[in-house]
Amino acid sequence: MKNLFFILLILSLFACKSNNKETQKLEFGYQEKEIKPEMYYSEDVTFTNKKENFTLAGTLTLPSREGLFPAAVLISGSGAQNRNEEVMGHKPFLILADHLTRNGIAVLRFDDRGFGESQGYKPDATTENFADDVEAALNYLLSRNEIDKTKTGLIGHSEGGMIAPMLAAKSNDIAFIVLLAGPGIQGKDLMPMQTALIAKTLGTSDSIIEQSIAVNKYLFELVCNIDDLKEREEKATEYIKHYLSEIPPASKGNKTDEEFVAGVLKEINNPWIVYFLRYNPAPTLEKVKCPVLALNGSKDLQVPSKINLDAIKTALEKGENKNFTVKELEGLNHLFQECNTGSPMEYPTIEQSFSPVALNEISRWILDKMK
Q1: Are residues 331 and 360 in the same domain?
Q2: Which of 115, 94, 92, 93 lies closest to 19 in space, CA to CA?
Q3: End residue of a domain, out of 256, 277, 298
Q4: pLDDT at residue 168, as a whole number
Q5: In the chain, how many domains are there?
Q6: Largest Cα–Cα distance in the chain?
Q7: Which of 164, 190, 203, 369 would give a disulfide with 156, using CB separation of 3.0 to 4.6 Å?
Q8: Cβ neighbours, 10 Å, residue 172
Q9: Which CATH number do you get for residue 363?
């Protein structure tokens, strides 16, 4: 084995979101320039996660100050982001909220816990904890007099597309869910695919990709099958040390062998990673009975389109959900931008922040289902 440098890279690529707490000034993305909040009512709001007793902050947009409107909570993907899901020079949730509100749909979007103006930072938080935050957002939205409680749903992107079904499967208050590049397969199976596809766009050789995938699959299986932390670490350490002499210093970040092993163990024992690797969306999707729209771009390298959409469709059919639409959008990446390669490295070079085709698919479907 020549190189294991992807062992840590893949664990960070899935998030592929900016964790920089400084607000970025965005000068490009033609759709941001077209935002006209004066066309509707916008209000900064706060609400409480009562399970952990902290405050979350967001923005509620309404088509007008008075009326009764269908509505949606926007759920961000992995990694800490603000209410606009700001990433690599783009604000996809700002654009999505603007589009939906202009088309008669109220929208609540909020800063992730411990980020922006939201409280609740918790280093060991998992997707399950983030689902509690979304539930708090939904409860707040349903408390507003302007919201039609029979026409309120969830729109989740990436990891948010895992969270939306988790809530819809157990609540009768959710009228619809929209899954934007939501995973349909288990995390331990998704991450190696993601790694291989992205590595290929970086020019990595097939042999190194295959070797890296083999190592990561072994470690992921340890995480999924061994609960005892000590036993898991012992097996992982033994496995990694077997290859240490073959790893170039640069690929280890010029760390000592002990530091490199400790870094790998820290990553694979991260509570979020453990939860994600172990979680299989299918059983939850089988329990979802409300209308579902699942969209993905054909050039998505983070949540590959075909295998994940097929898995979502299979799970919904198995659960006898009669009201769903599963659709691949040609030429779009994980952020629903029109693109060339789909690589995350391409995201900041693209002027477009959210494809109009995708925006229209979402709004038309919601309005049709919520007639």
Answers
A1: yes
A2: 115
A3: 277
A4: 98
A5: 2
A6: 68
A7: 164
A8: 8
A9: 3.40.50.1820
My answer on whether 89 and 138 are in the same domain is yes
For residues 262 and 212, state if they share a domain: yes
Please check whether residues 89 and 117 belong to one and the same domain: yes
DSSP reduced 3-state for 219: helix
Question: What does the DSSP 8-state code read for residue 181?
Answer: S
89: in domain: yes
Q: pLDDT tens digits, the chain, 371 residues: what are they?
A: 223 333 434 333 333 333 333 333 333 444 566 677 778 999 999 999 999 999 999 999 999 999 999 999 999 999 999 999 999 999 999 999 999 999 999 999 999 999 999 999 999 999 999 999 999 999 999 999 999 999 999 999 999 999 999 999 999 999 999 999 999 999 999 999 998 999 898 888 888 888 888 888 999 999 999 999 999 999 999 998 887 777 767 667 778 888 888 988 998 999 999 999 999 999 999 999 999 999 999 999 999 999 999 999 999 999 999 999 999 999 999 999 999 999 999 999 999 999 999 999 999 999 999 99
Q: Are 277 and 224 spatial neighbours (Cβ–Cβ below 8 Å)?
A: yes
Burial 107-136 (b: 16+ CB within 10 A, else e): bbbbbbbbbbebbbeeeebbbebbbbbbbb
Q: How many CB atoms lie within 10 A of CB 296?
A: 30
Judgement on whether residues 69 and 163 belong to the same structural domain of the protein: yes
Residue 57 phi/psi, 5-degree rounding, is: -120, 145
pLDDT tens, position by position, 345-369: 999 999 999 999 999 999 999 999 9
Alpha helix (H) residue ranges in the chain: 6-13, 30-33, 92-102, 127-143, 160-168, 187-201, 206-225, 229-241, 257-268, 271-278, 282-285, 305-318, 356-369
Could you tell me if residue 297 is inside a domain?
yes
* 159-206 per-position pLDDT tens digit: 999 999 999 999 999 999 999 999 999 999 999 999 899 989 888 888
* Residue 264 structural domain: 6-15+203-277
Question: 270 and 326 in one domain?
Answer: no
How many whole angstroms separate alpha carbon 85 and alpha carbon 106?
18
